[in-house]
Amino acid sequence: MAEPYAPVPDDWQRALAVVAHPDDLEYGPALAVAAWTAAGREVSYLMVTRGQAGMDTVTPEEAGRIREEEEIRAAALVGVKEIEFLDHPDGTIEYGLPLRRDIAAAIRRHRPDILVTLNFHERWRGGDWNSPDHRHVGRALLDAASDAGNRWIFPELAAEGLEPWKGVRYVAVGGSPFAGHAVDVTGCMDQGVAALEAHRSYLDYLDDLGPGHPMADARGFLEKKVRTFGERFGGVPAIAFELIGV
């Protein structure tokens, strides 16, 4: 039988969530964000792309505009007031110094206690292959957490007024097959569903991929997820994370 999840520590005040695409957080981690902001914690978002390549029937320019607007609405529904978008290319994000620098700069700007991201391992829990965007962003975030505290890595950041920040304690990875911690999201379901449904254009596109596509049923998808995680967390609705010290 699987080990019970330990609680994600709550002795922090500021978090920065860094993911590849608009909607990445809404498939589960945003429920934890809603619980955190309700408890008075500050959470900001950084999107590495604008989701330009996510809709085959829509031009990248229009898709990016739509998905950015939808993410801003989704974030507000779970109490996030500050959200930034980078302009890395959706679908072809490259791991490398430019990505590390951009994320390190954001960490210095926001000065978070913890970082949040999406699964960056090769596979998802069910064994499906993960996308290169998720893999590259997560690995760059782990490296950027260290870069942000070193004055001599990307020294131009300090020259721009972004002083080093060594306060990041760990990265919380949603959707990880190696999760060992969880957050109680009791009372957050309606917010989480509304946040996922804010991506209406994208969900409608997914629904067009075939009847009953699981990602198009926001409430059913999230209720199943928190119920499954809750079986290892005292029977309460939960979202699971892998915690990695940095």
Automatic annotation (TrEMBL):
<protein>
    <submittedName>
        <fullName>PIG-L family deacetylase</fullName>
    </submittedName>
</protein>
<dbReference type="InterPro" id="IPR003737">
    <property type="entry name" value="GlcNAc_PI_deacetylase-related"/>
</dbReference>
<dbReference type="Pfam" id="PF02585">
    <property type="entry name" value="PIG-L"/>
</dbReference>
<dbReference type="InterPro" id="IPR024078">
    <property type="entry name" value="LmbE-like_dom_sf"/>
</dbReference>
<keyword id="KW-0862">Zinc</keyword>
